Amino acid sequence: MTDAQNTATLSDVLWPDAELESVTIDYDAVVLLLTESTGIKRRIFCHGHLGMELPGFWDEVVVAQGEVLDQDPFLDRCQTAIQERFRNSPPATGNDDRNSKVSRLLRVTLGDGTELKVVASRFESEDVPR
Q1: Neighbouring C-beta atoms of residue 43, cutoff 10 Å
Q2: Which domain, by its residues, includes 27?
Q3: I want to staple 65 with a disulfide (CB 3.0 to 4.6 A). Which of 53, 78, 103, 109 is the partner?
Q4: Which DSSP category does 34 fall into?
């Protein structure tokens, strides 16, 4: 698998048993901070985000699984909301990733089954220096 494919799918992230430390959101990206089971801290960037949901979060921060998907009802809802609001012609934004109008979904499933979903144009990860 090439580096570009790793980045697109986040296959370089050791999802099982990682701990979700934080989720931050700003205009350009949703950023997840994880500590993998190996102790490596990793940032996951969701560039050009269109939506995020975490329904029913209670007390679990241990990750069971993470995956990037091309189809999901939440992805459809985000795209439909934008198309309806702008009558199928959304204007350009100040974010090149968002302007690409290409979206995928990152689904992070926690140990209790809670799902964090982020719809974004591009995903990448980086190790956090110690």
Answers
A1: 16
A2: 3-127
A3: 109
A4: E
